Amino acid sequence: MSLEKDECKCPECQRRAEEHEESEAFGLAVLIALVPIMTLTLFGHIGLL
Ligand SMILES: [Zn+2]
């Protein structure tokens, strides 16, 4: 038998799926926030700021 996680609707699997989506969204937000910080740091090291 095959049990794909997307087909399971029990509270445990729904909670796990939501946490997974939240962690992915959080990781993306962190990545987006890091880009300007890294850019500023890089420019600062080069001496442009
Ligand atoms: Zn389940």
Verbal overview:
The chain is mainly alpha-helical. The protein has a domain at 23-49. It has 1 helix and no strands. The protein has one helix at 11-46. The longest helix has 36 residues, at 11-46. The protein is rod-shaped, with a radius of gyration of 19 Å. Zinc ion (ZN) binds at residues 8, 10, 12-13.
Strand content: under 5%
Q: Could you tell me the radius of gyration in angstroms?
A: 19 Å
What's the SSE pattern? H
Our count of helices gives: 1
- The geometry reads as rod-shaped
Helix amount, in percent? over 70%
The oligomerization state is single chain
The structural class is: mainly alpha
Bound molecules: zinc ion
| Biggest sheet overview | none
Tell me the span between the first and last alpha carbons. 61 Å
Give the total of beta strands.
Answer: 0
Low-pLDDT ranges: none
Mean pLDDT: 89
Describe this protein with a few key phrases.
rod-shaped, 49 residues, binds zinc ion, mainly alpha
Topology summary:
Blueprint: H1 11-46
Zinc ion binds next to helix 1.
Offer a concise description of the structure:
The protein is mainly α and 49 residues long.
